[in-house]
Amino acid sequence: MLHTIPTAQLGPLGEPMARAVSACVHCGFCLAACPTYRELGQEMDTPRGRIVLMKEVLEGRMTFEAAQPHVDRCLGCLACEPACPSGVPYRDLISPFRALAKSKFKRGIAERLRRFISAQTIPYPKRFRVAMRLGSLAKAVMPERWRSMLELVPEKLPPPQSWQEVYPAKGGQRARVALLIGCAQQVLDPDINTATIEVLTRNGVEVVIPRSQGCCGGLAWHTGNLESARAFARQNLAAFPADVDAILTNAAGCGSAMHEYHLVLRGTADEARAESFRHRVMDVSAFLMKLGLREPLRQTQLKVSYHDACHLANAQNVRRQPRDLLRAIPGLQLLEITDAHLCCGSAGSYNMDQPEIASSLGEKKAQAVIATGAEVVASGNIGCLTQLQMHLKKLGSTIEVKHTMQILRDAHSQIP
Predict the structure, then answer these.
(1) H/E element holding 43?
(2) pTM of this prediction?
(3) How far apart are CA 127 and CA 91, in angstroms?
């Protein structure tokens, strides 16, 4: 029950955690939606089971060490939330619990080193590019957990791109937005940002790229590094202008993290600003559907399957909009993937933290994509795209992997 958890002793995140725990009625509807339960078949590797474990820890009846293996195996995909008839806000529990756990016990040296290197490279594009190059050269002698993460890196990284601070709208301005350009995405597929800007400007949107923006903080938040997550959140609160119609993201994980800034900064002087900020954040597909596309788009016979990124579908409830954008392209055949709600296994650094589960989920998702008969698979998250690309290649598939904005840009490309 709510009153049994000593919320006053748990800091500002104690109350949201207690509310989430108390909302669970242990009905089990979440089990079928949970990827780790599908993989492992254990009660403690379900949202319901993890809630019980976290409750026991918060009430002082179990150690963090005892619960942590099962909590660590959670992808944070939030597929449990839309499946839950009681409306348990699982996101208000899992990341805050991980933040609390980080201050309560020490992990092994190897694990701490992996997490430190991830935290010091992935959120910083220049460092990340250097790390990817060095890692690729040393892949053969890397420990298995490091190799599994490096397998996601393309054989040849695309050349870096840069973006100007303002891109004017074309054909009359209809809106003005600010765009988060991300960190890992800048290294792994910078063309996603270029395509996003082109699609927006061609649809009458002025695009601002704030120079002082930084990482969304999602990697830090989802691994329990609250101090770092707060620093990134504050940086972006200061960087993004108020005089725009929306703050746009083109990576599901980034958008989800920015929607949780009020939780990241709960109990601080910035909480009210974070609450206001998060309501201005939108995925680019949702924004474009709200604004409405300008015609024409080029006719195509392309067969496209769409993969729901977990932090787009589950965390932001954006499912219909990317599909409607793709259907707006004349002649495009949109194909649905079996078990579309199941995570592909990417989930930030999950490939390094839980390589066996990540690999199994990635292979199954790639097989489901192949079964659609598509020529291209689209998604709205860089982690999903790199995971799909790796596993499709492993299975010998020639299916192309593209962001929704890249497909839209290509449909515009022969239109003057």
Answers:
(1) none
(2) 0.93
(3) 30
For residue 240, give both structure tokens: 């993004």
Are 226 and 99 within 8 A, CB to CB? yes
Measured between alpha carbons, how far is 311 from 379 in angstroms, rounded to an integer?
11
Phi-psi region of 251 (alpha: psi -120 to 50; beta: other; left: phi over 0): beta
How many other C-beta atoms can be found within 10 angstroms of the C-beta atom of residue 82? 15
CB 244, CB 177: distance < 8 Å: yes
Do residues 380 and 283 lie in contact, with contact meaning Cβ atoms separated by under 8 Å?
yes
Q: How many CB atoms lie within 10 A of CB 380?
A: 31
Cα radius of gyration (the chain): 21
Structure tokens at 379: 């998604």
Q: Are strands 376-379 and 303-306 parallel, antiparallel or unpaired?
A: parallel
User: What phi and psi, each to the nearest 5 degrees, are found at residue 82?
Assistant: -65, -20
* Chain length of the chain: 416
Give the residue-averaged pLDDT of 239-259: 97
Q: What is the pLDDT of residues 277-308, one digit of tens each?
A: 999 999 999 999 999 998 778 899 999 999 99
Report H helices in 279-354: 284-291, 310-313, 320-327, 350-353
**CA–CA distance from 150 to each of 108, 121, 168, 354 (Å)?**
21, 13, 38, 14
Token pair 């729901």 is found at 308
Lowest mean pLDDT among 4-13, 131-140, 251-260, 397-406: 131-140
Please give the Cα distance from 215 to 341 (Å, whole number).
27
Give the 3-state secondary structure of residue 113: helix
**Coil, helix or strand for 379?**
strand
**Average per-residue pLDDT in the chain?**
92
How wide is the angle at C-alpha 126 spanned by C-alphas 121 and 132, nearest 5°?
Answer: 60
- Residue 283: in which H helix or E strand, if any? strand 281-283
Longest dimension (CA), the chain: 67
pLDDT at 221 over 70: yes
Please provide residue 330's backbone torsions phi and psi, each rounded to the nearest 5 degrees.
-60, 130
Q: Are 88 and 23 in contact (CB under 8 A)?
A: yes
Nearest C-alpha neighbor of 247 from the set 279, 276, 274, 280: 280
Q: What is the mean pLDDT of residues 264-269?
A: 97
Angle among Cα 302, 199, 274 to the nearest 5 degrees reads 120
Delineate the domains of the chain, giving CATH numbers in brackets. Answer: 2-102 (1.10.1060.10), 297-412 (3.40.50.10700)
CA distance to 26, 309, 310, per residue, from 29 (Å): 8, 21, 18
| Model pLDDT, residue 103 | 85
